[in-house]
Amino acid sequence: MDKAGATGSYHIIKKSGDHLKTAIAVFVKTPGLSPIKTRLAKSIGQKTAESFFIQCVKTIEKTLLEVHKITDGQIQPFWAVGEKDGLSNNLWKNFISIHTGEGSLGERQYHIYSTLLDKYDSVILLGADSPQITSSQILEAVKIINTTKQFVMGPALDGGYYLLGGTAKIPKQIWSSVQFSVYDTSEKLVAALNPICSTKYLYQMVDADTIEDLNILKDELSQTGFIHHNELVSWMDNNIWKTQIYESQLGGEVCV
């Protein structure tokens, strides 16, 4: 599979024929090059938090490989990697990796969305913090985008979003005008996008940023019925709940 090089060059599928092609970019950081899951690490330790992140990445990868297969390659996954030095990391070997560029989260999302939209009919941005997303939810998002031309937003419980997709260009100033990682990020972004076109909301889900989020994530993973989601639940049971003793940030009690 073609990989991005240090120059950021890569081979991608170009728009062609009557088939609408969609790019899905998952935003990731490379362990060892950037801090990983810092809020979660305060509760379960840096090593376990990084291991959890890697398990989430592998889970999302399995879902996207399935989506790529059942759509005969019409949906192409990418890793949007936060560090140029991380592009060649073995963790990203199964998808094309693209450097997000430097700057704020909004500027990085603008760069990836705009770059891929030049070559694909539609683009979806995904976070790596919501491994419970299913292939059917992704396919639903793609269908909405390509048939209605609306933006699609997957709202997160904390006020952010785990998914954003569309076919229309989004000016850089919109990305820069929104404050990220606050309680109303998704609401503010939808309002900013409204002059371009309306936004269709998907299911609200948790993104796993804190220890409190993990119980909700476990429930959401368990409800999908997918083997690779159950495997992540088992990993969490064995590597977080059973082996980590931590003081709950909610009640102050000690949990095991």
Please give a handful of descriptors for the protein shown.
256 residues, two-stranded antiparallel ribbon, 9 strands, 40% helix, Spore Coat Polysaccharide Biosynthesis Protein SpsA, Chain A, alpha/beta, 8 helices, disordered N terminus, 7-stranded mixed beta sheet, disordered C terminus, 16% strand, single chain
Read across the widest sheet, the strand sequence of neighbours is: 3-2-1-4-6-5-7
Indicate the structural class. Answer: alpha/beta
Report the span from N to C terminus: 43 Å
What is the CATH C level class, in words? Alpha Beta
**Sequence stretches where pLDDT stays below 50 over 5 or more residues:** 1-18, 245-256
Portion in strands: 15-25%
Count structural domains: 1
The CATH topology turns out to be Spore Coat Polysaccharide Biosynthesis Protein SpsA, Chain A
Q: On the 0-100 scale, what is the average pLDDT? A: 87
CATH architecture assignment name: Alpha-Beta Complex
So how many helices? Answer: 8
Coarse shape: globular
Counted beta strands? 9
Largest sheet: 7 strands, mixed
Order of SSEs: EHHEEHEHEEHHEHHEE
The CATH superfamily turns out to be Spore Coat Polysaccharide Biosynthesis Protein SpsA, Chain A
Any idea what the radius of gyration is?
Answer: 18 Å
